[in-house]
Amino acid sequence: MSHDKFRFERLAVGEPLAGATREAQLRNQTLMLLEWGNSGYTLYVALPNMTEQEAQVIKHNKVKVRLLGEADCLLPVWQFVGSQLFGETPFDPTLYLPYYPDCKEAIPRTNLVTIIGVDSATMIIEAEQVGRDAIMATQQVLVEDLKEASEDGKLTREEAARAMRKAMEYFQNHITPGALQVLQAAYGPIEQWLEEYLEAQLAKAKGSPCIEVESIVNPL
Predict the structure, then answer these.
(1) Contact residues for 64 (Cβ-Cβ < 8 A; gap 6+)
(2) I need a labelling partner for 130 at 20 to 30 A (CA). Which of 46, 62, 158, 203 fits?
(3) 93-97, long-range: CB < 8 A, 24+ apart
């Protein structure tokens, strides 16, 4: 495990990936590495001589994850949808206790994943996908509330406003200051952006009791 993450880092496409420990783990390897810190999870996808097609998959494709194992020894299995890119990342939350005494409570609440694609032959960052899960989880809260509110075929202004408030409260209660900093660095004032986006989804939902989840879960 690398301890380079216990500070806010600037990771940019085209620049070398910092950290001697990470380089020792990833150099010339084909593997995935999962780290956690005060800015959320970071999933490193290392491929030697990464192609442009592989970089585009890492940057744009949705990601599914299946969690195996017990609380103190987890095995997330990752799959980039629509591709042959997948892998597993053994993860021991207890390793973070010396640095984050409350990590056992904080780690399960984390819903921000930054994905970094690294050419392991050069250790240059070739792709980045920032913060999808935090936005998607917030949207899912909105979607479920809208579904429940519109079961009678109608969606009142009060019901829509209540669903909107609940979704924004969910986001505020499930995002750490570090994770918020990551999203703001990538997208600007994220809460304003999210509110405007959710308002757009409310506008689409009005008059339609049937809301298609897939149409709104991937805005980025």
Answers:
(1) 78, 79, 81
(2) 203
(3) 93/36, 95/1, 96/36
Condensed to tens digits (0 to 9), the pLDDT of residues 51-79 reads 999 999 998 888 888 878 776 778 889 99
* Residues 112, 131 contacting (CB under 8 angstroms): yes
- Name the pTM for this structure: 0.63
Give residue for tokens 């380079």: 4
CB atoms within 10 A of CB 16: 12
**Tokens 């913060």 map to which residue?**
131
Residue of 135, 151, 147, 160 whose CA lies nearest to 213: 147
- For residue 133, what are the β-bridge partners? none
Mean of all residue pLDDT scores within the chain: 75
CA–centroid distance for 184 within its chain: 14
The tokens describing 27, both together, are 């150099």
Q: How far apart are CA 169 and CA 161, in angstroms?
A: 12
